[in-house]
């Protein structure tokens, strides 16, 4: 079967750094779109951020955001939504605090946290380059109850970060896995882990989108680099690992392309499309 849907991760895959897409990748994606192929941004980032890049490339296929907890069309209308409940969010924040790990919650509009984000946070850095109306909302509130009073049904993901002592991350991640079997827990970088409600993974979201578009899994190509991409790499008819991908992703992939800094996405599209 020919490929009719391409699902592409952002960080470490489509993006050369935290912000930029190569000209070669843009041109290859446009080529695929002009061939009538659906191309979907498939990311751990929040929907509003993913939409900026989807619009930049000129895509109209629904966007998979927050590691599959939300699928929205190009107008932001909901196709799939699987928010975290307050009990799971509380458990997550409590364990993060226990190990002195920085954590925050995400919604489609941006970030909600109990303390100010560091200046190095990707959304803070990105906001400096955006017009005011495009900026990702970053809100600091006093407690989890205040967050859920305002945004119940909108909190999609929790993120836990630790750059210096990654062993603490592994311990906290394992404790959450033991205490919260109803959560999906994955890493998108070596210095983090992210939680979503069960039923929210990139693989499940790609499967949902495949059915939504009346396609077969053998008509799907997925491209990624990190642990949170593993489920969609395994689902796809053609799973593509970036040259910079972790070993688990490379082992699961049917093809390994070049790195994100060397237009690996474009090279995969040129090979299979």
From TrEMBL:
<protein>
    <submittedName>
        <fullName>HAD family phosphatase</fullName>
    </submittedName>
</protein>
<dbReference type="InterPro" id="IPR000150">
    <property type="entry name" value="Cof"/>
</dbReference>
<dbReference type="InterPro" id="IPR023214">
    <property type="entry name" value="HAD_sf"/>
</dbReference>
<dbReference type="Pfam" id="PF08282">
    <property type="entry name" value="Hydrolase_3"/>
</dbReference>
<dbReference type="InterPro" id="IPR036412">
    <property type="entry name" value="HAD-like_sf"/>
</dbReference>
<dbReference type="InterPro" id="IPR006379">
    <property type="entry name" value="HAD-SF_hydro_IIB"/>
</dbReference>
């Amino acid at each position: 079967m020919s490929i009719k849907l391409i699902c592409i991760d952002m960080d470490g895959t489509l993006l050369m750094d935290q912000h930029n897409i190569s000209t070669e990748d843009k041109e290859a994606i446009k080529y695929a779109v002009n061939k009538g192929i659906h191309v979907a941004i498939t990311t751990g980032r929040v929907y509003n951020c993913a939409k900026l890049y989807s619009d930049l490339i000129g895509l109209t296929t629904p966007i998979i955001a927050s590691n599959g907890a939300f699928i929205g069309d190009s107008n932001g209308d909901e196709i799939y939504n699987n928010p975290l409940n307050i009990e799971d969010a509380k458990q997550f924040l409590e364990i993060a605090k226990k190990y002195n790990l920085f954590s925050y919650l995400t919604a489609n509009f941006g970030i909600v946290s109990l303390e100010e984000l560091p200046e190095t946070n990707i959304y803070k850095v990105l906001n400096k380059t955006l017009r005011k109306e495009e900026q990702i909302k970053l809100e600091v509130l006093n407690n989890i109850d205040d967050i859920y009073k305002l945004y119940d049904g909108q909190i999609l993901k929790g993120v836990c970060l630790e750059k210096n002592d990654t062993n603490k991350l592994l311990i906290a991640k394992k404790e959450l896995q033991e205490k919260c079997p109803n959560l999906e827990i994955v890493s998108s970088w070596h210095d983090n882990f992210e939680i979503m409600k069960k039923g929210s993974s990139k693989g499940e979201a790609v499967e949902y989108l495949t059915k939504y578009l009346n396609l077969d899994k053998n008509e799907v190509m997925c491209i990624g680099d990190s642990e949170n991409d593993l489920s969609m790499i395994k689902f796809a008819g053609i799973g593509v690992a970036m040259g910079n991908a972790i070993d688990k992703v490379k082992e699961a992939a049917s093809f390994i392309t070049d790195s994100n800094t060397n237009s690996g996405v474009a090279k995969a599209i040129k090979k299979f499309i």
